[in-house]
Fold each of these.
Amino acid sequence: MTEKILIIEDDEAMQFFLSEALKKQGYMVTAFPDAENALVWLEKEKSNVILLDIKLPGMDGIEAIDAIRDKTDAIIIVITAFGAEKHALEAIRKGAYDFFNKPFKLEEMEITIKRALEKQKLRKELKILKQRARKSESFPNIIGQSNAIKEVLSQVAQVADSDATALILGESGTGKELIAQAIHEHSSRKNKSFIKLNCAAIPEGLLESELFGHEKGAFTGAINRRIGKFELADKGSIFLDEIGDMALFTQAKLLRILQDKEVERIGGSLPVKVDVRIIASTNKDLVSEVKNKRFREDLFYRLNVVTIFIPPLRDRKDDIPLLADHFIEKESKASNKKIYQVTQEANEILTNYSWPGNIREFENVVKRAVVMVEENETFITPSHLPLHLKGLPDGIVFKFPEESASLDEAVSAFEKELILKALHKTGGVQSQAAQLLGITERSIWHRIKKYAIDTESIKVLHKL
Ligand SMILES: Nc1ncnc2c1ncn2[C@@H]1O[C@H](COP(=O)(O)OP(=O)(O)OP(=O)(O)O)[C@@H](O)[C@H]1O
Ligand SMILES: [Mg+2]
């Protein structure tokens, strides 16, 4: 396809010179001596690049930029008289791509046009790719195009419409709940309830009554009859989150429901039939829980009919740019900012980090970065990212210290880095971080003090 260039230039000689040179390069060229007529032409025609003189009769080039921007996203390259840098900068601020002072070298102009066109083409392709990546899925809110996530989604599509019990496994923050919801929404039960229950968040004694309900007066404090989650979920799905944390006693009761498909309210005499699809999830290793007798083997086999494993984010780094775009868009809308992308350097940092908290942690980091971006900035740069991300990627050997730094300083920096890393891995819990590092709690405490590490803010960051 021939690329089109529009020249707006009142100096006849200059207009002629540029037109001829660019035609020779194979471009389709149209030229006008003023902005008004060019704008009328732009109502109907398209152009890839616009060469715009600043000093024009009537509407000047600076004003023209806004009017052009309203009509097209063509690349604008500004031509200014010698010594008019002030205008040139203003033009750039208004969205011009580059500027040339007269007299300029034709070759330089040609190279700039070529580069700008290449960039424009790439940007368009990327946009199409991204749209395609999102649109081709029937899971609009699950972002990702890695093979790993595609595999997960194809499993979801396969099992959604059966009534098979599904067990979703994955580290914390990998998207287990999101996938559970997707299973429900792609099943014929989608118009009925999706009831969530976090088995870890409810005290042991109360979980049973939450699940199965109770009759009035069934136990001290049971003032009213209560319908359990299983009954509430009748004809729909129930999501038993963190099932690995369920007490053995409750596990036995759950097993009965799975076998008999009926629940008994506590203190009730008659069992109630329920038709519920069960989706369970945990970040625990259930096989070892079974081995250690913390999880019933028979229940495990009942739940493990269909297993969907969501890989950690560090194993599907292809998804990072798309996820970054997604969360930037979401967050900048909420905060009314115009942020376009992460810079390449920032993207490298995001890609090199190991994301122990997976997508939840990633989302928090991007949200925080959007908040930190100043009004006049449009990109997320390394300065907007938390320090611990910039630490040493796992498995990378420490570099020699800068020439000016001593070995002691370098060792200290390395030690601080490792402590920070361990603290982030454990959500700021010192005792666990000490364990990770193979040192005592006393010793980590001393070092945290020595390096003035703010453990509270690490904890807050992980809870965001
Ligand atoms: N592929 C994805 N695309 C977009 N957002 C995602 C994706 N995966 C996870 N998220 C988002 O990340 C956050 C964590 O996801 P979710 O709560 O489903 O994870 P989880 O595995 O249940 O975590 P936890 O073990 O901590 O309960 C949510 O805000 C969710 O919307
Ligand atoms: Mg969850």
Amino acid sequence: MAEFVKLATIHDLPDGGMRAVEYNGRRIALFRAGTTIYATDDICSHAYAELSEGFFDPDDHTVECPLHGSRFDVRTGRPLTLPAFAPIEVFEVQVQGDDVLVRVA
Ligand code: FES
């Protein structure tokens, strides 16, 4: 069972912002919408693109891939528009004090 690991602090993520972090050789994207943090794979499921270089909309909880424009729901990982059709992985997040903890397998 994967454990929660600290990948950032809340101060690393301005409201409405996103950033990528590396953990165990894997890129994880963190998104902040108000007081809620979401964590997903940073790599698009369609081809190689870093979603953290795309566009995050905190109001509808979506990130748009910078390469071909697929939009993903960061809460579920589900692609909402083509050309991506496979979901991206999402990770459970806990905020403890200032620390952002993510359960990464
Ligand atoms: S690489 Fe993301 S939509 Fe193509």
Amino acid sequence: MRHLPEGELNLVLARHAVDRDYLSRSRPDLFDELWQNPLTRVLAMYEGQVLLLETEGRVQPALRLLEVDAVPSAQLRVYLGKSVDASANEPAQTPVVLAVLSKNAADLVEPDSAKWHNLRKSGAGLSDRDAGLFTQALALANWHDTHKHCPSCGTPSVVEQGGWVRRCFKDDQETYPRTDPAIIVAIVDAQDRILLGSQGVWEQNRWSILAGFVEPGESLGAAVIREMFEESGLVVEDPQYLGSQAWPFPYSLMLGFSARVSDSSPSMVADGIEIEKLRWFSREELGAAAHEMLLPNRISIARAIIERWYGEKLVSATETGA
Ligand SMILES: [Zn+2]
């Protein structure tokens, strides 16, 4: 994994090493050309899961990309682009196509369900190329899965432009893959403590920083201030942008911020709807308690923001297996 300078976010899913090669998307025979190219490799996906390489029965932190003949049919194909660098198994400039498979097709490719892996568990260990490919592929597959009809007239739409457009035959309307922006915020107080919240629907002792979707017609800064007030009752100020990464569950973009509690803020109160508990943590308190807490997944921007504030990596109960 890339090492980032101190103070920067270590964003697992923001890594990428693929040229998206957007100009090729408009080639009318793109997939025919790709299928005739012996270098083309296929990232097979079934219910958001992909295959990883195995060596002597041990799973490796690398995507198992397939030759085109190994994937006879697909519900959806998307041209993801060309790899920038060589990997252990593929040369640089390898074209990669996402193939979303039906249950039957997935069984033909790999019948052992234990060999299909999801991004939450495998993402952190992957290379820049593979983390980027998996993230891009999952966001696109999830978007297509829920946007199969024209938004104007409801006619089933067809996939064009290498998988990057859906078009309605009836009124010619084109729909492009969307991503939903959400802000996520490290609120700190005058003592430089961080605010963590726990949602009612979570397991006991799962904590994270607060987040919410940007609403239509709203700036990112306004969304930070509104969402933090709604969830915590606190008035925050001076939102500082920290970084972003895709969050393909199903197709969000997480925009990380820090913000300070205003001197004139009312007292903290959990909204009781989304956030059940709120608590300030000093570095000493979080360091002492982390191993008993369920902190956000290592692939999340929430974890990266919390560790940036803390100053080093934390080991939570999620990783100790407790
Ligand atoms: Zn239509």
